Amino acid sequence: MTTSSPLGVHSEVGRLRTVLLHRPGNELRRLTPRNNDALLFDGIPWVDRAQDEHDAFAEALRSRGVEVLLLAELLAQTLALPDAREQAVALTTTDLRLGDQLRGWLRHYLTDLGPEQLAEVLVAGLRNDERDGPRTLVTALMAEDDFVIDPLPNLLFTRDSSVWIGDRPAVTSLAMPARQRETQLTELIYSFHPRFADASPIYGWDQEHVEGGDVLALAEGVLAIGVGERTTPAGVERLARTVFSLDLAHTVVAVPIDQERATMHLDTIATMVDVDAMVMYPNVAHRLSARIVRADGDDLVVGEPLHFLDAAAQAMGISELRLIDTGLDPVTAEREQWDDGNNTLALAPTVAVAYERNTETNARLEAAGIEVLAISGSELGSGRGGPRCMSCPIARDPL
Ligand SMILES: NC(=O)NCCC[C@H](N)C(=O)O
Predict the structure, then answer these.
(1) Using an 8 Å Cβ cutoff, are 178 and 149 in contact?
(2) Where is the active site (predicted)?
(3) Do 62 and 129 have their domain in common?
(4) Is the dihedral of CA 92, 123, 344, 256 positive or negative?
(5) Is 345 touching ligand 1 by the criterion CB < 6 Å?
(6) Atom of ligand 1 nearest to the CA of 390
(7) Ligand 1 pocket, 157 CB below 6 A?
(8) Rg (CA), the chain
C-alpha cells in the first residue's frame, strides 16, 4: 500500500487519489426472492457477473491512477489485531435474537476463526444450518435457513457506511435494520487499521441517523446534506454540530428530499461533475428547497428555505451552480434516475464514472463537456446504487 496521498476529502470533484470499494462476495449469494426486499435489493443479482462488473469498475479507477482499497482486505488486516477482534466478536454477539446459549457458542466460534475467515463470516453472515455447534432452544425454534449472523449485501455501497469530511472519517449511523451492522465494521477499520492511525473517526453508529449518500462536499468547508428516507433531521443537526465544532466545515446546506426508495439519498438525485456543475434529476430539481445552516458559538443559525440551487451557490460563494439534466423527457429521466443515472463518481473536475445504460444522461453530460467513463452495472445496479454509492473517497487533491 502506498501512503503517498494525504488522506482527506475537501470536495466532490478534486482529483481522486484513494478510494474504498467493496468487491461483492458471498453475502450476495444469500439473497433470495423471500429476503431481497428486507435486504434492500430489487432483484437477485447474478453474483459472478456482479463481481466481473465490479472488477471492471475498480480497473477503470486504477487506470486513472486511483489507489483502490478493498474493504474485505482492510477488515481482515484489522481483525488480526487482538483488540479489534475482541470488539468485533463482542458487537456481533450482542444481538438479542441469539439468547445466552447460542451467544456463548458463537463467541467461542468467532474467536477461534482466523482473521480472513472471521471477516468472511462477519460480511457473508452465518445460517443456522451452517453451524456445527450444539442445538439450543433458539436454534431448534429458528428455521434452518434463518441467519444467526445476518449477511451484509449492501456493504457494496461503501459510500453510505462512512464519509470523509475534511481529514477525518465519519462513521455513519444507518437507518435500515439490514444495514446497521455495516458501520460496526467501518468503525473497526478506522479505529484500528494502521493506515488510519492519524485520522481518528468522528460521529458513530450509535448516534442519530446519517448516511454517507446524503452528504455532498459542495466546496471546501461546505456540505450539502439530504434529509429523507435515511438521514433524519436530528442526524443533520448532530452532524452539523460535530463538523462545526471540529472546524471541518463552516456551512451545511440541509436539503429535504422525498422519503421514497427512488430518492433514498441525495446522491440518487444529484451529484457534482465539475467545481460548479451538477447532474440532477429535473423532475425534482426545480422544487428542491434547502436551508443554510451555520454556527454561532455553540448554537446553529438556520436560514429560511431557499431554492436548493440558490442556497448551494450562495453557500459555495459562486454566482451560479450549473445544472445538467438527467436524460431527455420526464419518462426517460425517471427511468434513468431509477437506474442511477444521477449517481456519478467524479475522478476530477469534468471527469466522471457513470453506468453505461443511462445513454441519454451520459450524452447530456458529454454535450456539457464532461468526460464520461462508462461502466456496466446490470447486476451491480440491482441493489439500486451507482458509481458514487459504490465508492468512498478517502483522498482527493485540493482544488
Ligand atoms: N448512496 C446510495 O444511494 N446508496 C445506495 C444504497 C442501496 C442499498 N440497497 C440501500 O437501499 O441502502
Answers:
(1) no
(2) 389 (amidino-cysteine intermediate)
(3) no
(4) negative
(5) no
(6) 4
(7) yes
(8) 21
Residue showing cell 478534486: 14
Number of domains present in the structure of the chain: 2
Rounded CA-CA distance 166/169 in Å is 8
CATH no. for residue 122? 1.10.3930.10
Both 205 and 105 in a single domain? no
Which numbered atom of ligand 1 lies nearest the CA of 213?
Answer: 1
Is residue 288 domain-resident? yes
Catalytic residues: 389
- Identify whether residues 55 and 145 lie together within a single domain: no
Same domain, 134 and 189: no
Tell me: do 157 and 304 sit in the same domain.
yes
Nearest residue (CA) to ligand 1, atom 1? 213
- pTM flag (> 0.90): yes
* Residue numbers of the domain that contains 157: 47-72+153-396
Atom of ligand 1 at shortest distance to CA of 385?
A: 5
Per-residue pLDDT tens digits for 135-168:
999 999 999 999 999 999 999 999 999 999 999 9
Q: Within 10 A of 324 (CB to CB), how many other CB atoms are there?
A: 23
Which value does ipTM take for this structure? 0.98
CB of 383 shorter than 6 A to ligand 1: yes
